[in-house]
């Protein structure tokens, strides 16, 4: 398999999932500025939408979208318990979290990374993100991970999204559960391995 990624982008979720799964893969560094690979290949020939992650399977098929990719990875190694079994209520809870992170957190961070976004709109985005993060903070009360005691691929995605708060100076110091969660997930060996591979840890 090949993982097309850009450091610290949402593709970090898939990178962590692959490390947790212990699956062999080739990381393909992708520039989101030039939309080229290291060998000069036009990334639009890999994904016409121009964004990461893309997971290329050994048969040449390609998957896009974080929520799909991390579930695919989890399903390759059911013994690792990175996702509950298909068809169970627990699996639907996982999908509920993946959808929430994608639509309510991930997309909301976008304007904070883009130059030229009006300050008034930035302030509105920050306020909305704070409300959503306050809710997640409450949901994590008494739990190690989103689904309870078991780490899942939803945690790969939430950890990645929460890491962006540092890049955009979004203060989460008032959210004790989020702070503890970031430290807990960040200490996992697979997470450390993915961060180091992407040059995000010294």
Question: Would you write up a description of this structure?
Answer:
- The chain has helices spanning 11-21, 66-76, 89-113, 119-139, 153-167, 176-186, 189-197, and strands at residues 2-5, 26-29, 54-56, 62-64.
- It has 7 helices and 4 strands, in the order βαβββαααααα.
- It folds into 2 domains: 2-81 and 190-197, Glutaredoxin; 89-188, Glutathione S-transferase Yfyf (Class Pi), Chain A, domain 2, CATH 1.20.1050.
- The chain has a 4-stranded mixed beta sheet with strand order 2-1-3-4, covered by helices on one side.
- It has 202 residues and is an alpha+beta fold.
- The mean pLDDT is 97.
How is the secondary structure organized here?
Elements: E1 2-5, H1 11-21, E2 26-29, E3 54-56, E4 62-64, H2 66-76, H3 89-113, H4 119-139, H5 153-167, H6 176-186, H7 189-197
Parallel strand pairs: 1-2
Antiparallel strand pairs: 1-3, 3-4
Helix pairs in contact: 1-2, 1-5, 1-7, 2-5, 3-4, 3-5, 5-6
